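TL;DR need structure tokens for one chain.
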Amino acid sequence: MPRKSEYTPQHAASGREAKFPILETWPNQYRGYEITITIPEYTSICPRTGLPDFGTITIHYLPEKKCIELKSLKYYILAYRNLGIFYENAVNRILEDVARACRPKWAVVRGEFTTRGGMRASVEARYPRRIR
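>> reply
TL;DR here they are.
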């Protein structure tokens, strides 16, 4: 039986170079505390099927000199709504953009995605990157 179209390099790279709203920051006034932001209404589109993906994104970081401004984060996350991007790419892109914006001591972005087809996926990325 012939297979339907395979995943392509274009599917894999979809959304990685998209333009997003700027993540604004504000000057941190304290040291030695952690921030956790939970976004339970993340949505995007599967780049191959066009079906919607749903999940919860959690951003946990130790601020240094800057903190992420939450309204700008809301607009940033909303920009994923109609974007074709795989879970893995979305989580890693969010981590890169958060790290670039506020330069935390460390950050973890976790995506927990809604069950589809009897499977549930979670993806976690850390800054600084651990290369093995």
